[in-house]
Please model this.
Amino acid sequence: MFEPRAIAVIGASANPEKIGHQVIENIVRSGYPGEVFPINPRGGEILGLRAHKDIGEVDAEVDVAVIAIPAERVTGAVEACGAKGVKNLVVITSGFSEIGNLEAERRIVRLARAHGMRVLGPNIFGIYSAASSLDATFGPGGITPGPVAIITQSGALGIAMIGKTATESVGLSALVSVGNKADIDEADLLEYLEADDRTRAILMYIEGVKDGDRLQRTLAEVTRVKPVVVIKSGRSKRGSMAAASHTGSLAGADEVFDAVMRQSGVLRAESIQEAFSWVRYLASTPLPSGDEAVIVTNGGGIGVMATDACEKHGVVLYDDQAVLTETFSDVMPDFGSSKNPVDLTGQATADDYARALDAVLVEDRIHAAIALYCETALFDTGRFGGLLRDVYTRYRERKPIVFSLFGGERIEKVLHDLRGEGIPVFGDVYEAVSALGALYRVRRRMRRRSEPPESIDLPIEEIRRILDGARADGRRFLLAPEAARVAAHLGLDVPKSILARSLDEAVQSAGRIGYPVAMKVVSKDIVHKSDAGGVALDLENEDEVVDAYQAILRSCRAHVPDAVITGVEMVEMVLPGVETIVGAKQDPSFGPVVMFGLGGIYVEVMKDVAFRAAPVDRSTAREMIADLRSYPLLLGVRGEARRDIDAIADVVVKLSHLIDRCREIADIEVNPLVVYERGEGTRAVDLRILIKQPKGVS
Ligand code: COA
Model:
């Protein structure tokens, strides 16, 4: 697909207004060295190339056929390509699944596969590949080859990106639009780009994810080798299981996407501008050999702004004052400050500035430089561009540098010229530090050891039998005693509980469990027990149990008049601790995901939760816990003891493996999981399991 020896364009036209013409024109103009075969029923010549009436007439092997004819004719063309032995199809034509015409799209893929062909598209603008100087798109042409690969789901945006790459001086190794992803998807392309030496950074624009499970695994591999930046639209969508559980309602499509991308080491950009700025920098800059950066500035204000930005973007500022003083002793004016940010003051000349930068860049204990400059009258701005170019050229292979220049027209010109040469200059200090922060994240990702997936022993067959029993009973959720059995199989520490079928049994069971006790109605017709008045807590004695029993039955019958009530579950009241929630569900895009959050207002109001694709290992589970804004509450604040974080991680790991291996579970949630002091473990107070609807049942 990326390195064809011969390419055909079906629908090539002599009419310059037609897409089929523009594709041929771009192929010819881009200097593609292979053979080009325009296919058009009229024959003749197109742009000096002989047009064949039918692909079958071509007397050479064709690796790629670009199809740009109306939708209703595409199937015929695919058949002809198959018969000819074409290897790959690039289907530009629109009018398939994106407008509901799914069947025609499937037919194309079936036909293609039957002939061993792969299909890119349909509904795409084509493909650009620097490896073979091939621009087989209907874009504006003039793509500069370079180190960045772009995969885009939106065609229009992709075409616009061609122009943008030119103005932003981003050279491309590949540009591919995936469109409807009928066959080839992002994961396939990533596998190629991972191995492609030309590609040093990858930018993806994603609208919707199809095979999220595989995309996640592929991204996790690729990001160990080269950086991947993603822009995804549709941040505001919410999951559809809103009412079913916290995990469901919090697992909005975007929250899960965001979490899974981070888990896979992908950098998610907020805007196209940010994405371009990152990939341009990442593709041309060496990784820092350590974490510590120094800011050199001639203005205190931007120095402070850069310091704030460093904190936000995880850039560590070097603070060994003895080394800083020594480093800058020869270059610092008397009134300057060698504290990081190193302030040369507005009096600094261009030469002072250059010497200070040199001092930073030769010092091995400093790993990156942030050079800030405010235009002043003392500075010869005209010379400045040359000076920065010189510094950059000498150190570009050794140490990351970002330049941020602030000033008027003359500075704008320097910015424009240097950017055109691929030098990392930014007009805004936040943008500069954000790019360096992205590089730091890439470094951390690549240094992280990849751990083989932990395999944990779970009695899946036994759990499945419990689920099957509920299904046979026509239920999509487990009753409390069934959930308690699942909890036992998972090895969760659950409160003692006994099912009481009468008032007498309730009183006796309470005595056996020991006061105080809680009571919960057990009925297949009542899912939301509290709402139906089916729960009573903290019952201290026999009288309270008797009253609660009667109240629960009365209230539940009033709430759900036809409910079949199996009995009342008598449960040990657990000791108070920090209440948390662990949940897991099948996400429509990414498959099994797991969630952790603190209970109460933290989850309800602040939506302070962490997600990951499941299954997770223990260290990922610990990271999830540490991701929470409310994490300090678990570490122990204001004299409180540290909580048993390992025990939480244990539950997260188990639920993540269960949801992965038991795909018939739609949603599972322990709420609350009460967490005690370190070493004291957790109690899974309530475990709720929802089962997937069997296919065909509405
Ligand atoms: N084999 C070869 N050539 C064929 C053919 C076939 N089976 N059937 C028709 N052609 C020729 C036509 O004769 C025509 O050539 P001509 O100009 O010499 O007459 C050429 O192919 C194009 O066909 P035409 O019917 O004129 O279609 P079109 O150019 O108006 O539209 C598409 C074709 C593919 C561009 C259009 O159907 C489409 O899908 N447009 C949207 C594309 C898009 O936006 N994609 C997504 C981008 S992100």
About this structure: The pocket of coenzyme A is lined by residues 10-11, 13-15, 18-20, 39-42, 68-71, 73, 76-77, 92-95, 123-125, 155-156, 177 (CB under 6 Å). The mean pLDDT is 91. The first strand starts at residue 6 and ends at 10.
